[in-house]
Every structure is written in C-alpha cells, then in structure tokens.
Amino acid sequence: VYGTFGKLNADKSNAILMPSHYMANYRGYTWLIGSGKALNPDNLYLICTELFGNGSSSSPSNTPEPFHGPRFPVTTIRDNVEAVHRLLTAQLGITHLKAIIGFSMGAQQAFQWAVSYPDFAGRIVATSGTAKTWPHGIVRLEGQIAALTADPAFHDGDYTSPPVKGLEAFSMVWAGWFYSQEWWRRELWKSSSASGTTFEQYMTSFKKRFSADANDYILQARTWEKHNVGATPGFDGDIEKALRSIKVPFLYMPSETDLYFPVGDARYESQFMTTATFRPIPSLWGHTAGAASNPADAKFLNENIARFLGL
To answer: Exactly one of 213, 216, 258, 297 is catalytic; which is it?
Structure first.
C-alpha cells in the first residue's frame, strides 16, 4: 500500500480503493482527490496500492536472488488483486469497500475485483482500461519489449548498467500510442509544453520518459498482457461468462480515442455487463483522457464519477 488518506469510520463504510497503474503511485489519482473533486479525503478513507513490479513494491529490481531481475516470476492482475484483498481484510480489517476506482492497469484490477470478489465493493469505476488485453494490445506490448531488449547492453536482463538505448527505443514506441492521431495533427502537445517548443523537441523528449529499471518495465508489460478476467477460476477462459457474472453497479469509461484500450474493445465487453453504465470520454487525448490529462476531461470524469458514487 502506498498511502491512505482521510479517516476510516468505525463501521469502515467510507473506504475507497484506487489500485495503481503502470509504474505509478497515488499521484496518478490526484486529478480525482481533493476539495472540489470527486473524492474529498476529509470525508473518505482512500487506499492507494501499487502493482508488483513498479519498483517500490516487490519487483525484479529490488528482489534478491534467486528471483532478482529476469528471474522474477511473471505476476498477473489477479495476483495483484489477491494480494490487496489480503491486505484489506487481514491488515486493515476491511471486508467491504464503498467503491473501487481504477485507471489503465488500475481499471484492469477493477474488472478483476468485480469478477473475483463480486460483493466486496458497492460500486466500481474503470477508466481507460478493459476486462481483457486483446491480441492487438499484446502485439503492441511485445513491440515495446522487443525494442528494449534489442539493446546489447540488456544482456538478457542481467545488465550491470541501464540499457539506455533500449529504454529510449521502448519510450518512443510507447509515445506513438499514447495520444490519438488527431491529437498530434492538431498539435495539442503545445498546450502542455513550454512556449516555443517545436514538434521535434517534444517528440524527442519522449526518449527520456522511461528511466526506471528495464526488468520492472518488462514485468509490468507481461502483467498487462496476461490480463483476462475470463481466466478467473470457474470461468474456463470464457470472458463473456465472466463479464455476465458482474453484479455490482459498474461505471465503464473508456476514452473514445484510446489506442491502448480501444473503445471498440470496451464496447464489445460492455454488451455482456448487465449492471454497466457505459460512458466513453469524449476526448482527443487518447489513453491519458482516463486520467484527466486536460481540464475538459478532468471536469467530465469528476462530475460523472461523483454522480455515480452519489458523492
């Protein structure tokens, strides 16, 4: 657990879980937390957890042998949910959550909670994430891994210094999928850059976006790839059956222009969810729309999530 905010009621009815996403911590949810936002820590007990492999939790980079580096076992989204369930019940004494809210790989966890523990949360919200990583998403992730591991300095994961060229290549592949094509065509990157920044400067800046441990990145990519709520015991790989089993009210908010988790995949999944409110985010900001990367998306998300949670 990265941190908790607010006060836990004696009856523990005000707890909300926000599972982290790719290499992130609670700061990935600051768009949602605070006075005037959907989640006010003065009234709620907010629990933020981190994924295995993010560099702070158990990860290839910080685990001793025999599981250091490339020998760290591949963990799944379900593994992460199971670990957090133990944390909540055994250590925090929480047997029911007011809500679970997740973005990206946090949204993947939100789906897994809905299937693995259908009665554990009163409401669930998923932004920019799906119930399964579909084949095209796996191809993209494998492209990033291939770019990273092609650096001779990678040494099959037993590097003695960071594979800098591989990390730069990994970052550039990531950049091509981060925002929508129209976001680039309209040069919306100018709204988040210093005045006078050229396209070439902004594009090149992505090379330095990923500077953490290479094996940690690979583990998180593999975790992402393996996500499939249909693989939950009892569903025999049938994702449609798993989605039909969800009974908690579920706010499903894909980004209309997400290239990581395409809205078409989300729309396909939603047809099997009898309790889902399907509300795509009308944005050109691609995957980042689900984390309020601009004021319009922040307003849309906070208003809809607050309304859905009855806050």
So the answer is: 258
Instruction: State the amino acid at position 51 in one-letter form.
Output: L
Residue 98 has pLDDT above 90, yes or no: yes
Are 141 and 261 in contact by the 8 Å Cβ rule? The answer is: no
Question: Is residue 243 a contact partner of residue 273, using CB atoms and an 8 Å limit?
Answer: yes
Characterize the bridge pairing of strands 3-5 and 45-49.
antiparallel
Asked about 236 being catalytic, the answer comes back as: no
Active site residue 96: no
The label of the residue with tokens 């590097």 reads: 159
Of 104, 171, 180, 270, the catalytic one is 104
Cα separation, 57 vs 207, in Å, equals: 25
Q: What is the pLDDT of residues 112-158, one digit of tens each?
A: 999 999 999 999 999 999 999 999 999 999 999 999 999 999 999 99
Per annotation, catalytic residue among 57, 151, 227, 287: 287
Indicate if 287 belongs to the active site.
yes
Total-model pTM: 0.95
Look at residue 303 and give its three-state secondary structure. Answer: helix
Distance, first Cα to last Cα, the chain: 24
Q: Quick one: which of 129, 134, 132, 74 has its CA closest to 100?
A: 129
